[in-house]
Write a structure and sequence with these properties.
single chain, about 230 residues, mainly alpha, Leucine-rich Repeat Variant, 13 helices, elongated
């Protein structure tokens, strides 16, 4: 190959190389000046694009985060949470109704009410237990003799004395531990109305009471019932 031919070959190669570089730069310039694909340009024209896509994502999160109150499960919870508890009057009526119930379970239910925080409920339970009058009821009335409320204890004393059975009378010995002297005096007065050996025996237990009024009442009642 001659020197002239080689020179032409080099020149042609260089020229071809320059043309290739020019074409590359033109393509690159087009790409950098318009980096957004055409489908996104169309979205931008119609209010779409990346911002719109973010809005769609936010909406989806909102749907997840907001509770669906028309859901049967959540709706049920909502209804249950607004359900009002039974009033005191309703509970008192229910307890009073148990007094006429001959089912042994009624006594167990009434005894459970003796621990109710409301003294009115406990008083009603005492009255219903006395109305039933079974041996299980007498045990419940004996339990009520240790009630923190004086009115409940005194009511139990009166009703035990009215029942007048041996179990009821002997239960009244629990009144000896009552810290209220007036309650112990009431127990003596109630027992003194009963003419029985059991009543005389229980009265004897009150003869050494620390309160002089209780001792005096017990002494009078004891000798009166002993004579009879």
């Amino acid at each position: 190959m001659t020197t002239t031919t080689r020179t032409y070959t080099v020149v042609i190669a260089i020229f071809g190389f320059l043309i290739s570089i020019g074409a590359f730069l033109e393509i690159a310039d087009i790409g950098f000046s318009n980096p957004v694909p055409k489908r996104f340009e169309m979205d931008a024209d119609t209010g779409g694009g990346d911002d719109n896509n973010n809005d769609h994502e936010s909406s989806a999160l909102d749907v997840v985060e907001k509770p669906q109150f028309d859901s049967p499960v959540i709706k049920g919870r909502s209804e249950n949470s607004t359900k009002q508890p039974a009033s005191i009057e309703d509970k008192l009526d229910s307890i009073a109704a148990l007094a006429d119930n001959v089912d042994p379970r009624a006594t167990l239910i009434l005894r459970s009410y003796l621990d109710d925080p409301d003294f009115r409920i406990r008083e009603e339970a005492v009255e219903s237990l006395a109305a039933i009058g079974a041996s299980e009821s007498i045990a419940g009335l004996g339990y009520a003799l240790s009630d923190p409320e004086t009115s409940v204890r005194q009511l139990a004393m009166e009703l035990l004395a009215e029942l007048g059975t041996e179990d009821a009378i002997y239960s009244l010995t629990l009144a000896l531990s009552d810290t209220d002297a007036d309650s112990r005096l009431l127990a003596v007065e109630e027992i003194s109305l009963i003419n029985s050996v059991a009543a005389t025996t229980v009265l004897q237990s009150f003869l050494s009471d620390e309160d002089h009024r209780v001792r005096l009442a017990a002494n009078e009642a004891y000798f009166r019932t002993a004579e009879n």
